[in-house]
Amino acid sequence: MNKNMAWPIGITVFLVLFAGGLIGFLFYSTSLRFDLVEEDYYQKGLQYQDRIEQKKRTEALSQPLRWKVEAGNQLHLYFPEVARSNRVEGQIHLFRPSDARMDRKFPLNLTENAEQVLNLKGFSSGLWRVKIQWQIDGKDYYYEEAFTLN
């Protein structure tokens, strides 16, 4: 092989490998799944001030909303005393940041002691967020907390 032909062949091989690598990366990157934080994030952004006011109202309650995950993967929610004497409507959203397909929503269905228990069997372990939105006497409340399910 002639020494004068080594450079053009080397450059051509390099460019072909480089272009092949870019095309391979393009196919790989388009096959990846990614989830937005929420489906309707733009609309939620517009309602952000309302959410801040709901959180402040929740923090101003005389008793805080309490919760815990117990053995057997049960999520126990303990609502403030004011929820016992009033009709409460709302929703519990268990949000999985890494995969929106695992998100679950439950209607708020409190006992006479203002408690609710959710069975988390079948939920994958990892980071979850519990988002609770409820209404008492026309006032909206919101609570959000992260937890790790084992």
Automatic annotation (TrEMBL):
InterPro entries xrefs: FixH
Keywords for the protein's UniProt record, in alphabetical order: Membrane, Transmembrane, Transmembrane helix
Membrane-spanning ranges: 6-28
Organism superkingdom: Bacteria
Protein name: Nitrogen fixation protein FixH
